[in-house]
Amino acid sequence: MRWTSMKWMRKTALAALLSALLILAGCAPREASRTLFAMDTAVTMTAYGDAAEAGLAAAGDVLTDLEARLSVTRADSEIARLNERGAETLSDTALAVLSRALSAAEATGGAFDPTVYPMVRAWGFFTKEYRVPDAGELDSLRAAGTFRDVRAEGGTVTLAPGMAVDLGGIAKGYAADAMADALGRAGVTSAILSLGGNVRALGEKPDGSAWRVGIRDPNKPDANAAVARIRDCSVVTSGSYQRFFTGEDGTVYHHILDPETGYPVQNELLSVTVFSSDGALADAYATALFVMGKDGALAFWREQSGFEVLLMTKNGEMIATEGLRDVLGDVSPDYTLVWAS
Ligand code: AMP
Ligand code: MG
Asked: Rounded to an integer, what distance in angstroms lies between the CA atom of residue 182 and that of residue 200?
């Protein structure tokens, strides 16, 4: 073959490849991703379609705004000021999150309680200067009041002396919903958001299939115990493995406290995952159901509606509620799957 014709063939092949790529680019929807650090965790957002970039910018603004209002560690946040002064007039936004937290506290009989904060602080979970407080100290912190002692009149919230609130058990789920709303307003119909143990799916994947969300194996960092296929849904996991420290005597203390005692919850559970179209509810209930333990969590699910539950236990059971039959797959052989009804 002569050199010129080879050159021509190469040129033609290159042109064909380029046009194939252009066609593909035309068919595949635009994808945009962004990662930021907020609410003490890495937040990743991926959106599809022409509005993807604008949607992510709007969602990022919503997250930044919520964090600035709700953070307990930023001295100038609305919640930090409320904790500092004992009374504060809150914005409608902060008030909305607090009122969702108080409703969740009411619904769960106080298993979720945003006023555990003085006790969380005593364990050093915010400063990472960990220590083991004694029962007397925890009792006196608890005596200051519970969620029932939070007064809200108009926009002004008042706490009893010694009380403080922390919306950390619900804020990420609330934020995920608000971010999904912002994406929707920008015209995005397909997106996936991940905030620590909170995943929020908007719509479905651009190819029309369900999003696949890994459920972490509490015993194996970086491995999944199962995969959930979801559309338009939040999946929120609370687990003892997410934040903990080891005391001098080797005891492991984790960050989910029993509001009645102030001690890290000790029961048969390793993690609780809640599925719901309501991300704030899923977040608060994941924390609450961890506190309730296996039987309490399943009883609560039976008497309520609007969510499904996946429990992972220390003896290797993965207990899933019936509504997850078409959702759950790829279950690790390390677990025995048990259906609850
Ligand atoms: P999550 O990661 O959503 O399970 O929330 C746990 C965080 O919420 C902890 O790091 C504490 O700041 C706070 N917290 C701990 N125990 C409780 C509880 N029983 N109710 C509400 N918030 C809690
Ligand atoms: Mg939570």
From this structure: 13
Asked whether 200 and 193 are in contact (CB, 8 A), the reply is yes
Q: Is the CB of 256 under 6 A from ligand 1?
A: yes
Of 255, 290, 289, 260, whose CA–CA distance to 120 is shortest? 255
Alpha-carbon span 286 to 273, nearest angstrom: 6
pLDDT in tens, 30-61: 999 999 999 999 999 999 999 999 999 999 99
**pTM for this prediction:** 0.91
The ligand 1 atom at the shortest distance from the C-alpha of residue 101 is 21
Q: How far apart are CA 73 and CA 148, in angstroms?
A: 24
* 26 φ, ψ (degrees, to nearest 5): -70, -35
Single-letter code of the amino acid located at 297? A
- pLDDT for 272-285, tens place per residue? 999 999 999 999 99
Question: Nearest CA to 123 among 243, 218, 219, 270?
Answer: 243
Q: Is 238 in the pocket of ligand 1 (CB under 6 A)?
A: yes
Phi, psi of 52 (to 5 degrees): -55, -50
Residue 151's DSSP bridge partners are: 158
